[in-house]
Amino acid sequence: MVNIKTLDLNLLRTLDVLLAEHNVTRTAQRLHLSQPTISVQLSKLREIFHDPLLLPDARGMRPTALADQLRQPLRQALAELEQALVAVQPFMPQEANIIWRIAAFDYGETTILRPALAQLRQLAPHAKIAVSQVMPAGLQARMERGEIDLAFHVRNTAPPTLRSRRLFSEHYRLAARKGHPALQQPLTLERFCALEHVIVSPSGGGFAGATDAALTAIGQQRNVVLSVPHFLFMVEVLKSSDLVAMLPSRLIDPQQMDSAEAPVAVVPFEMMMLWHERSHRDPSHQWLRELFASSATGTKA
User: Fold this and answer.
1) Which distant-in-sequence residues (6+ apart) come within 8 Å of 174 by Cβ?
2) CA pair distance 258, 298, nearest whole angstrom
3) Nearest to 39 by CA among 29, 51, 24, 57
4) Distance CA 257, CA 239 (A)
5) Do domains 99-169+270-297 and 172-267 have the same CATH topology?
6) What is the CATH number of domain 4-86?
7) Which CATH number fits domain 172-267: 3.40.190.10, 3.40.50.300, 3.40.30.10, 3.30.70.890?
8) What are the boundaries of each domain within the chain?
9) In degrees, to the nearest 5, what angle opens at C-alpha 267 toward C-alphas 263 and 270?
10) 99-169+270-297: which CATH topology?
């Protein structure tokens, strides 16, 4: 039987990350410790639990039966402890030495993160921000493991189990380079479909999206000739070619591009801020969420 009085909380935190990563090196990186330190802590944990806990295999390490039993109760216990501790610690942004990890596509980076960045740096000058690309399929698990604090994503593909807050609704406009002849005269549906279009496919290689669904519903099809993974690359393509695109309105700079309403109704999308239950009552997390929400809606934080 494990003696609770002899357990070091830091060892349990290490075990929690080891059971998530199955890798000593990645665990060391996440905990900002050296690899030898993690190896020593794993040895101590094996002595405490009288079990190997993690065994080497071809892909790294695999958990023992006991480790599998410990994983979820340990994660839940540590999360509850974190909530209990942060509840009595007020957040002081001017003094905070913290790393916030945010996930977003380039659209969210441009329309939500960038407008709030100056204020964030002013109010929390010692904080650091790590931005990564949002991957909806693994978002829930990464937030549960504490790898991501906050994400910006569209409502229709956001994991339903995460907490969320609506930031704004966005609509599409047909965009093209300055002086593009197709946008200098009334645009019929037939001419719209005949133009050469660019589309964003975050997963890569797709040639259909919300606009194509709207066209299919009325028996029409447009001419999509280029598929790219990012909106910002799409913008650069538009500015230097005769291609056109259905672009979210917040990305259209009228000084650099022309735009027009498309002759087909495309459903707008809603941008959401997403976070895990484990962070919901964290004062620092609450402060960060309010700052982004205020910036996105144009209200004072």
Assistant:
1) 183, 187, 192, 244, 245, 246, 247, 259, 260, 261, 262
2) 25
3) 24
4) 7
5) yes
6) 1.10.10.10
7) 3.40.190.10
8) 4-86, 99-169+270-297, 172-267
9) 140
10) D-Maltodextrin-Binding Protein; domain 2 (3.40.190)
The per-residue pLDDT string of the chain (301 residues; one tens digit each, 9 = 90 and over) reads: 566 666 788 888 899 989 888 888 889 988 888 999 999 999 999 988 889 999 988 777 888 999 888 888 888 888 777 766 655 567 899 999 999 999 999 999 999 999 999 999 999 999 999 999 988 888 988 998 889 999 999 999 999 999 999 999 999 999 999 999 999 999 999 999 999 999 999 877 889 999 999 999 999 999 999 999 999 999 999 999 999 999 999 999 999 999 999 999 999 999 999 999 888 888 899 999 999 999 998 755 4
Q: Which residues contact 284 (CB under 8 A, 6 or more apart)?
A: 86, 91, 93, 96, 98
pTM > 0.70: yes or no: yes
Return the ∠ at Cα 20 (arms to 17 and 26), rounded to 5°: 65
Distances (CA, A) of 220 to 96, 166, 168, 212: 55, 32, 30, 8
Euclidean distance between CA atoms 159 and 292, whole angstroms? 20
